[in-house]
Specification:
alpha+beta; PmbA/TldD fold; seven-stranded mixed beta sheet; about 20% helix; about 40% strand
Length: about 450
């Protein structure tokens, strides 16, 4: 595939087309190109972001963006060109460049538009669009109030490392030369608070963030500041531990990263390139029989919800893992063709995923999960990229809390946690009821039977 970017080619004075006009004119032009088909992805949006630090605005930014990306296909070849200039002269140049370069692309029979019968976007209100009337001044006041509350939580909290408020809205359009067209509006808002605490010469940083489709996220500003303060304060007083094998509890925010590793291993690119230890694993038990993982693309207002993927194919509610057994993969159109399978509508990745454990009771909050751990490590933070999808080998730097007799006794840092994802999944003892619902994933903490914890 050949990629080109011709943004700004026509000059700033040219008349800008609407998304629909731009898509129509490009597709009409493609019709005149022998043997060519095309897909278009166009978007426009506005966003606002404010960051404050030490009681003063550090960043105040309003951005407005528009763009169009063209995928041109001819005889199994594909070229891609994009532009943020939606004037007709710029789009003509985009077409010219895409047409000239497609002949140099490698031929691949898996390229091309989908069968129209597969293109069935979700036809219901998914509650993705919640516009808000707010200003940079509003965002600045909210960020300053969050920072002030965080700093006032404890004398040990001396500074912030940045507190931000952001949000925006936009529109996305997909159009293809087979007649498919779909567009939808969307919005997103977020809060982030990072604080610095110091005591006895030790200096730590931690924070908290939340995301949502609606401006009701802003109503949780105080809770975000309080949570950020709690997280940074509990890191103080860290003491060393010896290298050992022990049970490990991954707190919910970091447990999400384990699920993301699993998702990467059962997604199209990893599978058709053979870069996964779960190639040909359908029907195999990869988790305890009490565990199920469910994808719900219809979940209203979720950050991972969308009416369809980039090929116009919608995902459907399904079990990814059922009673411990892997039932299906995450496949976009190209990946599905490479694997001779049916696409699952996951060209943009998974929709909302929820982890369920039949052993979990409503009383299994974080405190109860620490009691279940009894003795071992609670992982609260991870660093590095120490995961090998091909072999499953896992080794990452970590920080957390040491537990004895079901009680947290002190913080720990400068550790490594190591094992294999195969062993970690098989050794999942319990999923907590302390569910964190964040950016397309719902899961509580994960209690693992045993890992190697590298300390002193």
């Amino acid at each position: 595939m050949i990629k080109l970017d011709i943004s700004g080619a026509s000059g700033a004075s040219a008349v800008q087309l609407t998304l629909d006009e731009a898509a129509d004119r490009v597709l009409q032009a493609v019709e005149s190109l022998p043997g060519c088909t095309a897909s278009i992805h166009a978007s426009e949006g506005q966003s606002t972001r404010v960051t404050v630090n030490h009681g003063r605005p550090e960043e105040r930014r309003y951005a407005s963006t528009r763009g169009l990306s063209l995928n041109l296909y001819q005889d199994g070849r594909r070229s891609q060109a994009s532009s943020t200039d939606l004037s007709w002269p710029a789009l003509q140049l985009l077409l010219q460049q895409a047409r000239e370069s497609v002949g140099y692309a490698e031929q691949d029979t898996c390229n091309g538009l989908p069968d129209a019968a597969l293109q069935t976007p979700i036809d219901k209100d998914l509650q993705l669009y919640h516009p808000a009337s707010w200003t940079l001044a509003d965002a600045t006041d909210l960020a300053l109030a969050m920072e002030a509350e965080g700093l006032a939580s404890d004398q040990a909290i001396t500074h912030s490392q940045g507190v931000s408020v952001s949000g925006g809205e936009g529109r996305s359009l997909i159009a293809m030369s087979n007649g498919f067209r779909h567009q939808y509006r969307h919005s997103g808002y977020s809060l982030n608070c990072d604080l610095i605490a110091s005591r006895d010469g030790q200096r730590e940083v931690d924070g908290w963030s939340i995301f949502g489709r609606g401006p009701d996220v802003f109503e949780q500003a105080s809770a975000v500041a309080v949570k950020a303060a709690e997280r940074v304060l509990r890191k103080l007083g860290a003491r060393p531990i010896k290298t050992q094998r022990c049970a490990v509890l991954f707190e919910a925010p970091v447990a999400h990263s384990l699920l993301q590793h699993l998702v990467s291993c059962i997604s199209g690119h990893s599978l058709y390139t053979g870069n996964s230890f779960l190639v040909d694993a359908l029907g195999r038990e990869i988790l305890p029989a009490t565990i199920s993982i469910i994808e719900d693309p219809l979940r209203p207002g979720d950050m991972a919800t969308r009416p369809c993927d980039g090929d116009g194919i919608a995902a459907s509610p399904r079990h990814i893992v059922s009673n411990g057994c892997l039932e299906t993969y995450f496949l976009g159109l190209y990946s599905a063709r490479r694997l001779s399978m049916r696409p699952t509508g996951n060209g943009y990745g998974p929709s909302h995923l929820a982890v369920h454990d039949s052993r979990t009771s409503a009383s299994d909050d974080f405190t109860a999960m620490v009691r279940h751990l009894d003795r071992g490590l609670v992982v609260t933070g991870l660093g590095g990229r120490g995961f090998n999808a091909l072999t499953g080998e896992y080794s990452r730097s970590a920080s957390g809390l040491w537990v004895e007799q079901g009680e947290i006794v002190h913080a720990v840092q400068n550790l490594t946690v190591a094992g294999t994802l195969q062993q970690m999944l098989a050794g999942l003892q319990r999923v907590g009821a302390d569910v964190l619902d964040s950016y397309g994933t719902s899961s509580g903490s994960w209690l693992l039977q045993e890992m190697t914890v590298g300390g002193n």
